[in-house]
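Convert to structure. Protein one:
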Amino acid sequence: MNATQGRGITLRRWALLLWCWTMIYAGLASAQTAVVFHPNTDRVDLASRLIYWQDHQGDADWKQANEAASQGLFRPLPEGMADPNFGLTSSAYWFRLKVRSLVELETALIEVAYPPLDAVSFYINGQLRSLTGDHLAFSSRPYAHRHFVLPVKFTQEEAVLIDIRVVNAGNLTVPIRLWSRGGFERHNQVSYGLLAAYFGLMVGLAVYNLLLFLSLRSPSYLCYVLFILALGYGLWSYNGFQAQYVSPDWPAWNDRSPLVGFTLAGIFGILFVRTSLAIGEHLPTTNHWLLAFVLMFAVQCVCVSLGWSPIINRWIYLTGLGANVLLIFTTWQAMRKKITGAEVFMVAWGILALGIGTANLRNLGWIPNNLFTQNALQLSSALEMVLLSFALAHRIHSERRLREQAQAQALSLRLDLVHTLQHKEMELEALVQERTLKLQQAHEALSQRETEMRELAHHDGLTGLANRKLLEDRFHQATARAQRNGLELVVMVIDLDSFKPINDTHGHAAGDTLLKVLAQRMATRLRQTDTLARIGGDEFVVLLSDLPPDTCVNAITHSLEGVLSTAVMWCDIELHVSGSIGCARYPQDSLTLQHLLNEADRRMYEVKQLKKSRLLHIA
């Protein structure tokens, strides 16, 4: 068998294995486990029991969907998805489940709890039982409810195959529940009661602030009223009440009304912030951005009203997110400017931004659909409206307090005028004292700087010893005293032996350490009236002043040679050098420092040559 045949057999084996796995998966999909519905159960969440298929073309009928199921194209929802949520999509989605009841039950209800869906088709055992959606009149619904509900009859003998086809031009969220009739009615009582309280709160706040507007004629109150009404209308339509109670035979408007309400809420919400915080006066650049978003919302509102919402849905969601970020940034800037009420606005818009951001992210399919994300907009908007009402009340209180403060300031104006001159005089005295103190401090700093400069000009930077300039000054002072008192001077030139090998072997850090240690040692062997100077790399000069005539300096020379020949420790290494010393005496050898240094240097080299001769002789 050649290599080509071997590879062909291997490929066929892999193909056979892949086909087997496909058949197994298809068998598992077609053998979906039935949901057991007990008559005492109020509600069953079906997300974990559903399998779904995405019809990209959106034109498949039930037979094609059933064939897709037999081919294993249906699959369960992703792990962690509480409800089916696929964001903005143009595809049709098919959902399949099998339900078996323990007893005969004719009043069970299957619910798709998302009113904005365009088309919802229910199939029972392959037969179309209902075709409804917000693109159709409300009378198309088999059960009069704001959600899409289908009564289902179960028999004890066999499971019922339920297929649900859903299409939506906007966000495609499909919460599917199975209810008993009693459980569904109890749930409706609670949910309708909460929604009634929510919309009642909105109406109450709108009426209250409308009365304030009629009384105060402030445009911010009118903008707030229009904002509440627009947001309330958007949520009213979004929750299915527009289609159920207001325009059941106008499906085209029912489909558009939520986005119309939300875009109008964006317009009036931004205008409310502008007028309440006087953004045009305090933040002109931010004001231009706010007006740009007002224009975008206005264009979107017109487009939605004309029926173009499928084209601009994503644009509307992203504009809503951007507008809330801008409003939070605006109120933050207002807080920095210390504009009255900005803190409450910051909290209110932050809460609403959390709700709108959560709703938009869910609509875009970026976060899952659950109880919190599905109701985040309603919860946050309720808190936001209450906080904004507090903000308006705080504004009224602040304006009244400002008026009272203005009156108090007017009464105290004369006293302020009298005290102003006194304060000015005291401030002038304090300013003079402050300037005087600063001048003194500057003078002291300058003196200290001059002292430091003189110190640097007369001393060696490495060892701190006198440099050549200071040595010359000390020499002139010593010679003046010597001439008056008949005394002598001795100039010693000291040169280190074997210093260069230390630098070459251990580096300049070792050499610098050696020079500083030897300088300190030599200074301890001299009098305070003597001068130790460094005038070269390893060359030192000692000036012995105020000496009686013919004073012997051999003891000092031997003492200095001793400290120079003592080892210096550096990084656990012993550094060894020695010193050669040459001496010249004033006034016998010369009367000038330079000549004395030359003579001492010549004698130092004689000592150095003598040391080398002795070493050669010993060797």
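Protein two, convert as well:
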Amino acid sequence: MAFFSIVIAAMTLQSAYSQISIPGVSSRFETNQMIEDIIDAESAPIRRNEQRIEDLEKERDAWNRLSRDMSALQDAANTLYSFRNPFLQRIASSTDSSVLTASAVREAPESVSSLEVLQTASADVFRSASLPEDFRVPGGRYTFGIGDSEISVPFEGGSITEFVASVNRRASQIVEVRSVRDTRSSRILIFEGQITGAANRLNFADDAETLALETNTIRPRATEADRDIRLARETVTLEDGETGSAGLSDGTVVLEPTSSAFIDTEPRVVLEEGLVLSFEISVENLGREEFREPVEPRGPTVPELGETELDGVRVPFASSVFDLPEWIRPEPPAVIDDLNILTLLDGSQDFALPPLEDTDGFMTISFPVGEALAGLTGIEVSNRSTFRRVHLQNIRVYDPDSVGDFEPVLALETARDARLRIDGIEVNRDTNDIDDLIEGVTLSLQDTGIARLRVEPDAEAIKNAIIEFLALYNQIMVETNILTRTSREIVSQISWFTDEEAAEAEERLGLMQGDSTLNQLRSRLQTIMMNPYETRLGSELRILQQIGVSSNASGPGAGVDTRQLRGYLEMNEDVLDAAIAQNHRAIRDLFGFDTDRDGIIDAGAAFEVHNYVRGFTQTGGIITTRTQSIDRRISDANTQIGRDSERLERREAQLRREFAQMESAVDSMEDMRRRLEGLNTNQNR
């Protein structure tokens, strides 16, 4: 009976452990699954912590996303009221861009100006005669100059192409040289000065002068007519007027109202076609206040004659009696506005220059006198105006095409100043890019003609800044709604989401449901955007809705749109455009206003948004605090996972040892069973 009991026990154990298997041991027993099941059951805390970490990381990512959006909103709000606000930006627009274009800086005052471009500035452009294709430029020192600048180019000698490349490589800031093939077998050289203005004539020296003469680019000047007209006591005759005197001081003729002068130019200046008369003149409008109205004279003062005494009787003298003529107030001088100031004389022939205009300081006038007279013997200067003062100086006759002792044989372009009238005042500049006529504005002259220039606020920049601010505000509203609510309608209502963005948004739905900080953020921003603010227009402009910004800017609809209840703002562009055109300064106040006039912005929608959001985004602010807390919780969870993992490793090792011992016992019992079976077989024999 004992034998059969052992056999039955062994068979029972074999049956019980027939599914046990130990790695590395070839047997019928399988233990892996049993160990895995035990470890899996005991690893539930690790899985809970891993899920917790995943949720915390999503929450941290959401806060980081909010931080980026809120920082962008903070910057956009600051832009609307800080020193870089778009309300101070200016644009300059021309009614004819083919005549002139312009740009303006922020400091430019708003203005409208009338401009007439009489002449654009240019630089000298000379051409040579036709040269053979194989023309060789000899070696030497080639010097080119403009104004006070001069550059010398050493050249070893070579072809036209090599000469052009050498000069352009070393002297391009003064002159640019080109060669143009005028026939299949010849070329011409073109020398183009790089600085505009009448004073910036292109000249040649050293071997450049020799080359220019040999290639018939320049020639010795043929005229001796160039001459400065002296203004001295010997050459100027002055004549006082009824209300003012004439004078001469340091080479400048000064004519008070109604005075005149004659300038003797003998010996006679012989004039040829192309010669120019230039002079500097100032025409100052004095205004009527310079002249005092005459007052009635008081007449003579006669002392009292006293009295005399005769035989004790005092007899007073009779008072003196004078019959003075009645004073008649003189008629005020006639107001004369006559700007025909200069007349050129050549014997009995006169030529009156065109009328001038009032100036702001001295301006240079040039006139092609060679086309008007054959000679010049004198100049009459008459200030007939009642309320103007005239200064005249630096009169000269010259050939504008001459360069020192030479003149170009064929000038494709001659260096000259730009001439233009701005609001009726003629001015000269040596460049087509003029930045000193209108404060904060740079003019770029293109061609002759008339244009009106308007400097005004950059309405597009203002509008774009407001649009960006509203878009970022709406983005914060969208994100807080997604994070704190679970309705899929919130995502489907965001029309600008792509399919991918919508899918990502649905994953974040309700991630922070019930978070009081986010709910407070959304509510506070809504309140700020709806509050009234002080502006220079008072009640006429106090809220954003008055410039076309509201939760229903497109107008009332047939029903209630739930999007209007979620804090999103819309913009009516037509209303905003009209408001910017009429009241851009008051709109600036709406976003940022200095209520106590201390020079510091302390109110306005953008100001309030910036200050409130800063509490979230600044270092040590709400978002930093929240993300640091999340990081600590993630770290704690990872630490706990590490501990649990170590515990499970030990537990697994323990289970493998115990199962190995069990298998060893089973193997021993199996061996005993085989022996017993063998013993039983032998006994039966």
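The longest strand covers residues 260-270. Residues 2-49+640-680 form one domain.
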